[in-house]
Amino acid sequence: MDEKNIDQIISDYLSNDIHLNEKNIKASKLALLDTLGCVFNASLNTSATIFATYGLKDTLENPIAYMKDIKSLKEKARFFSVLTRWFDYNDTFLAKEWAHPSDNIGTIFSYFIENNSFKVSTFIDSLIKMYEIQGCLALGTSLNKKGYDHVFNVKLASASVFSSLISNNDSEIIKRTVNNILLDGLNLRAYRHEPNVGKRKSWAAGDAVSRGIELASISEFEDEIYSEIQKDENWGFEKVFLNGENLSFGKDLNDWVIENVLFKVLYPAEFHGQSAIEASVKLSDLYKEREQEIEGIIIETHEPAIRIISNKDKLKNASDRDHSLEFMVAAGLLFKEVNSKTYEDNFSGLKQIENLRRKIKVQENKEFTENYYDTSKRHIANTVYFEYNDGSFSKKETVETPIGHPNRREEAEPLLKQKFINNMSSHFSEERAKDIWEKILLIDVDSEFKEVIKLLSND
């Protein structure tokens, strides 16, 4: 399909409505609910709200009410997306590139909060398309291997769909938007790796959707379409940024990504390590029983996990810790739990985790790597076990697909609901949170989007 430039592929894709069915509607509603829970949870974190509001607020009683009062759509979207991403607890999609499709939801939420007479079906159609564009770019093109950040895909997906909404699917405006994103280029991912890890990894997605909306709005005005920018042999995107490799979708665009997204159900941690946490929690009792006999702890994992979240000497802050495979496994072994507070400087068990993670050795399991890239499996496997002082080894705990994986969706949904209730608990009663969950799942797609907004108000 990629014989065409991506501006044409995206324009063609956005010109047709998604065929909505029970499966993709349910998946979209789960994605929205999970994201809303992340937003409400982060709105009580001082650091998150300072970055989301440019320092205007420390905490928020109701982030959706606050969002209504933000004047510009791009700042509405930025606010929502910063809170979505803050605790690294929103959904994930892993392929050649790593993605967090719900980073985009702030884009359409900002649009529909102002244009709330549109039907829920239109919102879902837009959500599916943003997930698909971002996810399929992740399937086809690796940016991380060249040192670039995946929020480029966030910006492109958000800008494209936003352009489609404001232009009534004008193909020239959509293509101009896509090419303006290409002209904007790529940004480094250095802030996700030592020694430069910091809060930017939590606000980068919000920045990306804001910039995407801005370029989509500028692209409404008559100008060149810049149709040659992707493949120009001297000054083109692929030549300058990708060393001549193609910017490619991994498959035809439809509704596949929304149905195959990975939910972070139990643990706010980088997704390559989620199955390792599950394995470590299972081994926690054995660890405590034989702690004095343990010489070392071994993690067998897939190559992307080694590249992105392993082999860190010094962890400087919470942003560093939630991207450390060794840290999250040590926490699981010690406490049978990993939550947002686990990563903070004032966590009481921090010294214990730091001491234990020094005993951990990470090595690649090539079968795990093969199954990670196999689109029919898409495993995110980890094995954890102990080496004892006498040279013997403990039993191995292997988790091939963590609880949020599509092939464990039925098992995950009750836990996803509980995660939502927990995330909303400081804003609403448990009964009210349950009511919001159920009513959004049951809402008719022909209802106006204002009905969703009403459910989230404090009235």
Main traits of this protein?
single chain; 459 residues; 2-methylcitrate dehydratase PrpD; 60s Ribosomal Protein L30, Chain: A; 2 domains; 4-stranded mixed β-sheet; two-stranded antiparallel sheet; 21 helices; 51% helix
Return the CATH class of the largest domain: Mainly Alpha
CATH architecture name of the largest domain: Orthogonal Bundle
Low-confidence stretches: none
Largest sheet: 4 strands, mixed
Total domains, how many? Answer: 2
| Principal-axes shape call | globular
Q: Which structural class do you get from the secondary structure elements?
A: mainly alpha
Q: What is the H/E string?
A: HHHHHEEHHHHHHHHEHHHHEHEEHHH
Helix content: 40-55%
- Rounded to an integer in angstroms, the radius of gyration calculated over CA atoms is 22 Å
The helix count comes to 21
The whole-number mean of residue pLDDT values reads 95
How would you write the strand order of the largest sheet?
Answer: 4-3-5-6
* The CATH homologous superfamily of the largest domain: 2-methylcitrate dehydratase PrpD
CATH fold field value of the largest domain: 2-methylcitrate dehydratase PrpD
